[in-house]
Amino acid sequence: MVEKIYDFDPAEMLDSDAAIEAFLAEAMETGDAKFVASALGVVARAKGMSNIAKKTGLAREHLYTSLSENGNPTLETTLAVLKAFGFHLAPKHDVTQV
């Protein structure tokens, strides 16, 4: 019997801004820069890498490289990509500790 192996692409599951926001929040909680870069790449694929490239003014190839598991995007690239997603960085604060 031959077992089939299926490719899983998490980008296919990111079909709403709420799903994308939760996905990115979980990635950022890890504190792992490479994991965050890769998660940004997953979201960029979900939203269409060509579309993100056009909105950011960055080359698709640059985005694919920067937003991979081995990527290391600059802060400028990260902010441009988040803006293209319709998101921004915001400090996390716990109002119970204020």
Entry summary:
The chain has helices at residues 17-30, 33-47, 49-56, 60-66, 75-85.
Tell me what you see in this structure.
The chain has about 100 residues and is mostly helical. The longest helix is centred in the middle third of the chain and has 15 residues, at about 35-45. It is about 55% helix and about 0% strand. Helix 1 (about 15-30) packs antiparallel against helix 2 and helix 3 crosses helix 5. It is globular, with a radius of gyration of 15 Å. This is Addiction module antidote protein. Pfam families: dnstrm_HI1420.
Q: Tell me the number of structural domains.
A: 1
Rounded to the nearest angstrom, the radius of gyration is 15 Å
> What is the beta-strand fraction?
under 5%
Question: Helical residue percent?
Answer: 55-70%
CATH topology: 434 Repressor (Amino-terminal Domain)
Number of strands: 0
Runs with pLDDT <50, length 5+? none
Number of contiguous helices: 5
For the record, give the distance between the C-alpha atoms at the N and C termini, rounded to a whole number.
Answer: 61 Å
Query: Could you state the order of secondary-structure elements as H and E?
Result: HHHHH
Q: How can the largest sheet be summarized?
A: none
* Secondary-structure arrangement, i.e. CATH architecture: Orthogonal Bundle
Mean pLDDT: 90
What would you call the shape? globular
Structural class call reads: mainly alpha
CATH top level is: Mainly Alpha
InterPro entries: HI1420, Lambda_DNA-bd_dom_sf
Organism: Mesorhizobium caraganae
Pfam families: dnstrm_HI1420
Protein name: Addiction module antidote protein
